[in-house]
Design a protein that fits this description.
With 129 residues, this protein is an alpha+beta fold. It has 1 helix and 7 strands. It starts with a helix and ends with a strand.
Length: 129
């Protein structure tokens, strides 16, 4: 057992380090996403709707919620999402384009200034657009 001590110590140190890193995640666990009160920062999952002329959406709240936008925003401009894939967790910085909401498009348009991929560890990646 003495021979395995360095391996056990290293494993324990790694586990404590990763547990400490996870505590930095400010987003509620077990939820689709989160948004700041003014929607300047939104965290959620990307989805692509439609074919070659489709659009990107961000799901940040459950379908059954009191959110005025149904828990989903339509992201614009689409070029900001190049390199991302549906289902990825992202953090988006931008602003709502409230005047663009219509009955034909129940979700609000959201102008993306910066989009960051989030890793499964609960931390930002280096990928930013």
């Amino acid at each position: 057992m003495v021979r395995n001590f360095p391996l056990i110590a290293a494993s324990l140190s790694l586990a404590l380090f990763l547990a400490g890193c996870g505590s930095l995640n400010p987003y509620p666990a077990g939820r689709p996403g989160w948004h700041s009160p003014d929607y300047r920062i939104v965290f959620g999952r990307l989805n692509y709707v439609g074919g070659s002329h489709g659009h990107w959406t961000l799901r940040y709240a459950g379908v059954v919620s009191n959110d005025p936008y149904g828990g989903r925003l339509i992201l614009t401009p689409a070029r900001r999402m190049s390199g991302f894939s549906p289902g990825q967790q992202v953090e988006v910085f931008g602003q709502l384009l409230r005047n663009k909401k219509s009955p034909l498009m129940p979700n609000a348009l959201y102008q993306v200034h910066v989009i960051r991929l989030w890793l499964g560890t609960g931390h930002r990646s280096a990928i930013t657009r």
